[in-house]
Amino acid sequence: MRTLFIEDRKEIDEVIRACKTCYVAMSDGDVPYVLPMNFALDGDTVVLHSAQSGRMWETIRKNPKVCINWTLGEELAWQDVRVGCSYRVKSKSVLVEGEVEVIDDYDEKYRMLTETMAQYSDREFKFSKPAVVNVGIMKVHIKKITGKVFGAKAVTPWNS
Q: pTM, whole model, 2 decimals?
């Protein structure tokens, strides 16, 4: 079994959109911090939302650089059932490195909330003014994006 890079951005976006949770890693000096979060993909930005205070916000204000992970798939596979090191979880994974921009503009926050809900539902949603004003919206501008397939079947002349 092999690990292969996903080169096609469309396929990378499909992996992201198939996930319900992303994991956002950040750092306050030498202290790492990771949070599971809901998200939306909006072109070359990832939209995140939360309350406007707390450890995450304190960390982001000190260092706006983040890394985000999405992983899809949990099927266990192996090359030899008796060899522990031959076991893998067949999955696809995407990593984004980027920088956070905090969004304060009301109309843009409303649009980002709409994008986020579109990740989870086909319904149309409305948001009250207090809900929009009181939510924290972050855009992560993608600086680097990579995708991988883990546990892929090796392609040889006899199985291609």
A: 0.88
